[in-house]
Design a protein that fits this description.
The structure holds 2 protein chains of 2 kinds. Chain A has 5 helices and no strands. By secondary structure, chain A is mainly α. Chain A has a single domain, classed as CHAD domain. The relative contact order of chain A is 0.15. The longest helix of chain A has 37 residues. Classes of the chains: A mainly alpha, B mainly alpha. Chains A and B meet through helix 1, helix 2, helix 3 and helix 4 of A and helix 1, helix 2, helix 3, helix 4 and helix 5 of B.
Chain lengths: 172, 194
């Protein structure tokens, strides 16, 4: 499992909304950095890494919810949850198959056909999960979710100080 | 499960103060599920407790820059609890699936035997020897028994772990470790210690 990237510049006195901006930005970029090759069923770790990154993003969005506009935050959180759901649908069969094969290996040969038959059924669901994930990734690219998440993060940041004379009034 | 609302958060306030408020609420939320989870062991309450442990863990992980090792240690405790409750949840999810699969196989076999007996006045018991899935029931029964027993073992471990956490005062220790340090007492005008 990929280790979470550190959030730069945080300390106890960091303004809460600035911490929110940094956390959501880093966690959003992390999710999409794991998207390459996620549909490759021969490497089950890729989908796991993207799912974990999605959970971390969702957690950051929930912890810092008070720092964002309610409606945009709610809309984007819903989209992140939907992504987490399709990743789960794809990942859960991997975990179940791994566990069942581990159990079957410890049981008697006479017990194995039944468990193997259940594993086959779960594998069929795995293919469907991959199709749905592929569709979801296409929708994500079209909806520019990453860009919208970065934009949401930016709304929490304290505006930079306005240079003198550029705040709408002419210098004296 | 919807998280409890945290009141008094201030986007312009410091991270430490806000994170402390969130941890207090998430910790109370986690502990509120314990009595029912321990007493009944019911699936839904254990699942809610797992989600509460996960929320506490994430806020502690994110607050590590503000609170240091106390937050990191608290996050580890929450993660261990979340993982254990997750293992129980996996048993709860897999068991009905195993039973449903066995039921499907039985129904398929019954249908096959029925079809094979077309026009017969009764069904010969020997026909069961030809049921297409007959070699598969045993493994599913063994699996169901194993998962039921494993769930019970894990639940015992959860009860012990939770009781140990409570008896060692983990919640109070965590909150004490996270509280921002008290400001130094103001020096008295006469120079004596307050």
């Amino acid at each position: 499992m990929a280790k979470a990237l550190p959030i730069p510049g945080l300390n106890p006195g960091t303004r809460f909304a600035d911490a929110a901006a940094a956390a959501v930005e880093v966690r959003a970029r992390e999710v999409f950095a794991h998207a390459d090759g996620v549909l490759d069923t021969s490497d089950i770790e890729r989908v796991h890494d993207m799912r974990v990154a999605t959970r971390r993003l969702r957690a950051a969005m929930e912890v810092f919810a008070a720092c964002f506009s309610k409606s945009e935050h709610k809309r984007l959180l819903r989209e992140v949850k939907a992504l987490a759901d399709v990743l789960g649908e794809r990942r859960d069969p991997d975990v179940a198959i791994d566990a069942l094969e581990g159990i079957a290996a410890e049981l008697s040969a006479a017990d194995r056909p039944g468990i193997g038959n259940l594993v086959d059924e779960i594998r069929r669901g795995q293919g469907r999960g991959n199709d749905r994930l592929g569709e979801a990734l296409e929708r994500l690219a079209e909806s520019r979710l990453e860009e919208r998440l970065i934009a949401l993060a930016g709304t929490a940041r304290r505006p930079a100080a306005t240079p003198a004379g550029l705040n709408g009034s002419e210098p004296a | 499960m919807k998280p409890r609302k945290v009141k008094g958060l201030d986007p312009d306030g410091p991270l430490a103060e806000n994170a402390c408020r969130i941890v207090e609420v998430r910790l109370a939320e986690l502990r509120s599920f314990a009595p029912r989870a321990l007493e009944s062991g019911e699936q839904e309450t254990l699942h809610d407790m797992r989600i509460a442990a996960k929320r506490l863990r994430y806020v502690l992980e994110m607050s590590e820059p503000a609170f240091g090792p106390t937050a990191a240690e608290g996050a580890k405790v929450a993660k261990r609890l979340q993982d254990l409750l997750g293992e129980i949840h996996d048993c709860d999810e897999m068991l009905p699936r195993v039973r449903a699969h066995a039921d499907t196989l039985r129904a398929q076999d019954a249908a096959a035997l029925h079809e094979g007996a077309a026009g017969a006045a009764d069904l010969d018991p020997a026909a069961a020897r030809e049921a297409p899935n007959r070699a598969r029931y045993r493994g599913l029964e063994s699996l169901g028994t194993y998962l039921t027993a494993r769930r019970a073992v894990l639940f015992d471990r959860f009860v012990q772990r939770w009781e140990k956490l409570e008896s060692t005062g983990f919640a109070a220790d965590l909150l004490d470790g996270l509280s921002p340090p008290e400001p130094a007492p103001a020096a008295r005008a006469d120079g004596a210690a307050a």
